[in-house]
Every structure is written in C-alpha cells, then in structure tokens.
Amino acid sequence: xxxxxxxxxxxxxxxxxxxxxxxxxxxxxxxxxxxxxxxxxxxxxxxxxxxxxxxxxxxxxxxxxxxxxxxxxxxxxxxxxxxxxxxxxxxxxxxxxxxxxxxxxxxxxxxxxxxxxxx
Length: 119
Prior knowledge:
By secondary structure, the chain is α+β, with helices and mostly antiparallel strands. 26% of the residues lie in helices and 32% in strands. It contains three helices and six strands, in the order βαββββαβα.
C-alpha cells in the first residue's frame, strides 16, 4: 500500500507513486511557472502529485525520500514522457501558473494485473 514516512506523510517517490496510482489515486499536474514557447519547445515548471478522487489527500512527488525536494518538470516533452511512463494514455497540461489537470494513470501494477487476468 502507501509507504509514507511518519514525519513526511504527504510526499511520495516515483517508485511508490506507481503503487498508489494502481490503487486508485489520480495523478495531478500543477503548473508552478507559466509556460512559454521557445523555438519548437514549451518551457515552464510543473510538479506532480498523487491525489484521491475527492481531493482530500494529496502526496507531492519528490526526487528522493532523504532529500524531499519536489520533482519539477521544465519542458512539456519531459512531462509527457513522465506521464506516459506512469501509464497515462492522454496528457492535459496546464500552461498558466496555478493551473491543475488530473490524469487517470493506472500505473504498471494495474497493467500487470490486467495481463495476468487475461492469461
């Protein structure tokens, strides 16, 4: 289930994120710096968190449990790659600071369950 430290229960690493997504959490992307297009690439700052459907519980994605630094995405390409790795089949990305979008991301565990059930 959820592996959260007692002193920091509202953070999650990428490894643990996969598990909570497989258990019904949604993946929320928040824009923390308005995006701008430079040449053919969009740059901004986005962060991710796992949230319950009702929004009552949220866990911010961090780079590691020991450092607790929020994982930030600086390009849309990097963010979309991350969403795809988490199991998202679509990507809705807020471009203005303060915007948030939620994604259903069953994660790898849910995909493995489906494969096991069909065999």
